[in-house]
Amino acid sequence: MSGNAVVIEHLTKRFGDFVAVDDVNLTVQRGEIFGFLGPNGAGKSTTIRVLCGLLAPTSGRATVLDYDVATQPELVKQSIGYMSQKFSLYDDLTVEENIDFFSGIYGVAPGKREERKAYALKMARIEDRRHDMTRLLSGGYKQRLALGCAILHEPSIVFLDEPTSGVDPIARRSFWELIHQMAAEGKTVFVTTHYMDEAEYCHRVSLMYGGKMVALGTPTDLKSALAARQPELISPTMADVFIETIEAIETTEAARA
């Protein structure tokens, strides 16, 4: 098994004439927190779905944990954790019933289910609400419960697609604490977000725009490069990096037109 969790080579995904993902190349190491940043429609979620074996690539190649997403999608699905922005929970089940359901879906061994349930409840900080209907939980509690359900089978890589969308800033910060806890335990976390400040929580980030990867690096390196280009900026943020990158692309495209 290689030291890379994800390897992407010239990945392209088209829907008819629309190019959602355009010639993306990327390597993500095991144990890394990698962030895909960009506005809605940038191609982040489509890339995640290809990597999770949910969509077949149009061209190019991608492997997750050394499994080819095009030829071995079922092995990919069995090996990963996946959490969508809609949290994938069942509101008409209790907290505990949701955990039991996903334990079965993910094939958690019967002898380990109570142990993993206890872990999920403790991680989500809802041990005292295990019998509550899930629809009664706040967005932050649902978010943590969904994460707990996504890692019941102890995957070594977790894909989180816009996991903090629609929750308050305190819940977002708490969720990122859980992400760092998982990374400290050796898990690879691949997360998409349109919140530029969340880039600060990642080891490395890629900026996506128009289906293309337009920047790649650590948050510190990307901000330092911007400060070198624009010394008048005081303490540039990742939002500044993104705006400057997109403006440069649009200026170049306008000049070509």
Spell out the helices and strands N to C: EEEHEEHEHHHEHEEEHH
Radius of gyration: 19 Å
Q: Beta-sheet strand percentage?
A: 15-25%
Broad shape: globular
Number of helices: 8
Distance between the ends: 47 Å
| Class by SSE composition | alpha/beta
Number of strands: 10
Q: What value does the average pLDDT take?
A: 91
Major sheet characteristics: 6 strands, mixed
Strand order of the largest sheet: 6-7-8-3-9-10
Low-confidence stretches: none
* Estimated helix fraction: 25-40%
Record the SSE blueprint.
Elements: E1 4-15, E2 18-29, E3 33-37, H1 44-51, E4 59-64, E5 67-68, H2 73-79, E6 80-83, H3 95-105, H4 113-124, H5 139-150, E7 157-161, H6 169-184, E8 188-193, E9 204-209, E10 212-217, H7 219-229, H8 238-256
Parallel strand pairs: 3-8, 3-9, 6-7, 7-8
Antiparallel strand pairs: 1-2, 1-4, 4-5, 9-10
Helix pairs in contact: 3-4, 3-5, 4-5, 5-6, 7-8
Structure description:
- The structure is a single chain.
- The protein has helices spanning 44-51, 73-79, 95-105, 113-124, 139-150, 169-184, 219-229, 238-256; strands at residues 4-15, 18-29, 33-37, 59-64, 67-68, 80-83, 157-161, 188-193, 204-209, 212-217.
- The strands form two sheets. It has a six-stranded mixed sheet with strand order 6-7-8-3-9-10, sandwiched between helices. A four-stranded antiparallel sheet has the order 2-1-4-5, with helices on one face.
- By secondary structure, the chain is an alpha/beta fold.
- Helix 3 (95-105) packs parallel to helix 5, helix 5 packs parallel to helix 6 (169-184) and helix 7 crosses helix 8 (238-256).
- A hairpin with a 2-residue loop joins strand 4 (59-64) and strand 5.
- The protein is built from eight helices and ten strands.
- The model has no long low-confidence stretch (mean pLDDT 91).
- The protein is globular and about 60 Å long.
- 37% of the residues lie in helices and 25% in strands.
